[in-house]
Amino acid sequence: MAEKLNKLPKVTEYFCDEDQFSPGNACCPGCIMELNLRLVSKIMGKDSILLGTPGCSAPTIHGQNDRAWHKHSYYACVMTGVASSATGLARYYKKAGIDATIVCHTGDGCAQDIGIQTISGAAERNENIIYICYDNEGYMNTGVQRSSATPYGAATSTTPVGLKSIGKTTNSKNMPMIMAMHDIPYVATATLSHLEDYAKKLTKAKEMVKQGFVYLHVFCPCTVGWKVKPDSSITVCRAAVQSNYFPLWEVGNGAYRITQPVAKPKPINEMLKLIGKFNHLKDQEISVLQQQSDNRFSILQALCSIRA
Amino acid sequence: MRLAVLTGEHYITGDEACAEGALAAGCTFFGGYPITPATEIAEHMSKCLPEIGGTFIQMEDEIAAMASILGASWAGVKSMTSTSGPGFSLMMENIGLAVCTETPCVVVNVQRGGPSTGLPTMGAQGDMMQARWGSHGHYEIIALAASSAQEMFSQTITAFNLAEKYRTPVILLADEVIGHMSEKVIIPEASEIKTVSRPKPQGEKEGFRPFQPGENGVAPMPSAGDGYKIHVTGLTHDERGYPVMTVEAQAQMVERIVKKIQNNRDDIIKTESYSLDDAEIILVSYGISARTSLAAMNQARALGMKVGFLKLLTIWPFAEEKVRALATKARAFITVEINYGQIHLEVMRSVAGKAECHLVGHAGGTVITPEQVLERIKELY
Q: Does residue A15 surpass a pLDDT of 90?
């Protein structure tokens, strides 16, 4: 299979395929969830079933019209049961010999907080499921509350900034690494500024899911919740990668690899400047965030060196 | 910085009024999880609780939120959570634990259209029976309703007072319309607000029995760390709190939990009566539908029809004695609620065939209009 993976088509070739995700949604200006879902659905193809939850995608996509998802079967599960409902589908199709790709697509609140039990369970059972977490660092649909993906210092409606409050006081959960520690066939991070990288990982995911559970963690800035200019969400994605705040990496069968190494990482502040939810942070707090980011990256580097 | 009691006149939403009521009642712990249309309660608490030295925690889901307030309650503080339909469903196991372990706490359910994810941003009153019987096993529960932002304030205080007095979870059943509606709320001076705290044990610590009932059937409640030996379990337990797996222990424990509510019905159940004395037709309602009903009653009276209105402030235990007494005088009852008949069934049970019982209700998503109620009154009159 390694040979096959080396001959992956370029992302532009995917965009020549029939679009499985049709126009007509109500995403906020500058939201990159649509781009994310378009790429996911193109690569996963027609024979895939998407599962989601209440979240941004509910009011903006499948709640708005019957067009956007009309080429896919879509199942909106409850937040505590996505990976479990997917298990039911995956097990049946496997038993029946039907070649279908089961793709869960949820936000970070579902993946990391309320739904982590079922994801962890499905990963441990090594179900044939692709789980894609679009990480917008909080509960954006209900009005920007913190989640366990919300970074230190971020202002949200439940971590308000005040005279004695700097916003969220704890670090975010390193979810892709948590999933990597489940020793599942494939885990990768991706973001929308690096579509070629993301497309390759989605293609690998479609192959690797035949071996078992696959987890993709996708960095998706929320223009409204993060107070980012509508034309800057891709810029924020790129800045996150270039500062190693959100490094792009993958692990398949125990081998860790940084897929987009950054020769000269920029200070994290370059990214923070683009994001309103960090506007209030002082140098001391920025250095805490920088330190956290550095720590995580050094762990990743160490894991990559084990393979070497 | 602010005071716990925000004395004065305010123009705030029902959700914010609920949070203010909790603070005025002495709540110092909130564990919650975002969910429309209750999120604003959590958001308001996240801003205000730290300012009065309290604790706000956003938990990872509603199961954790509900469990966290039980832990806080055993640490000795007044605690609450707020949610809506799907979260309310997730809280049910821990609500049962709170009943079984006699743990005071307040759960606010700002109802939205269901079942399942339903209509997140649109109101309904479909969780009335879930509040009564949602957790497994046989038990009694106290549940209140609120029909205005002002009542969201006052009923939240009442919820805390009843929870503390009877060592039991108390559910406040609001709805999206009340939760999101902005109205004038008058918050009195702190000295005018009556608050109740749980009975604390006195005397010997040796041999103390944390589930031995006092005079009103409620056992004094120590906090973890007070020096009393405490064993808290959801298993059937005796007065010491230790598991006893016998038919006799089960009967004794469940009977105590049930009777401490049933025997104090007169103290717990509150209703408001409007023009009931000569009423031939009586409207029964609660929450946002109570306002519909009051308007319909006034319109009917203006047309010369003898219509009265019984507003339920307490949903559970149900005001069956009151309804039963009214059934001997009135010829028909109309229950007005945004569901297909839940409290309507309780009215029918209480009326027991002595009068006609009708329902004005629908599946949810909007309010019932006074005209819809008036139309039914005219049909019956």
A: no
What is the ipTM score, two decimals?
0.90
Pick the CATH number of B274-380 from 3.40.50.2020, 3.40.50.920, 2.170.8.10, 3.90.1150.10: 3.40.50.920
Encoded tokens for B171? 């559910």
What's the CATH number for B8-192? 3.40.50.970
Please, which residues 142-171 of chain A have a Cβ atom closer than 8 Å to chain B? 142-143, 145-146, 148, 157-160, 162, 164-165
What are the chain B neighbours of A145 within 8 Å (beta carbons)? 34, 39, 42-43, 58
Q: Which of B265, B305, B273, B268 lies closest to B290 in space, CA to CA?
A: B273
So where are chain B's domains? Answer: 8-192, 215-266, 274-380
Min Cα distance A261 → chain B (Å) is 33
Query: Is the Cβ pair B39, A143 closer than 8 Å?
Result: yes
Quick check: B43 and A157 CB within 8 A?
yes
Q: What digits encode the pLDDT tens for the residues A218-260? A: 999 999 999 999 999 999 999 999 999 999 999 998 899 999 9
Residues in chain A: 308
Chain B residues touching A164 at Cβ < 8 A: 50
- Identify which of A80, A116, A164 has the shortest CB distance to residue B90: A80
- Model confidence, pTM: 0.94
H helix runs in B136-246, sequence order: 149-166, 176-180
pLDDT digits (tens, 9 = 90+) for B166-220: 999 999 999 999 999 999 999 999 999 999 999 999 888 998 999 999 888 899 9
Average pLDDT over residues A37-59: 87
Q: Where are the alpha helices (DSSP H) in chain B?
A: 14-25, 39-48, 62-74, 85-100, 128-133, 149-166, 176-180, 247-262, 265-268, 287-302, 320-327, 343-351, 370-380
- The alpha carbon of residue A148 is apart from the nearest alpha carbon of chain B, in Å, by 8
- State which residue of chain B sits closest to A59, comparing Cα positions: B120
Fold category of A2-306 in CATH: Rossmann fold (3.40.50)
DSSP H/E element including A204: helix A195-208
Q: Where are the domains of chain A?
A: 2-306
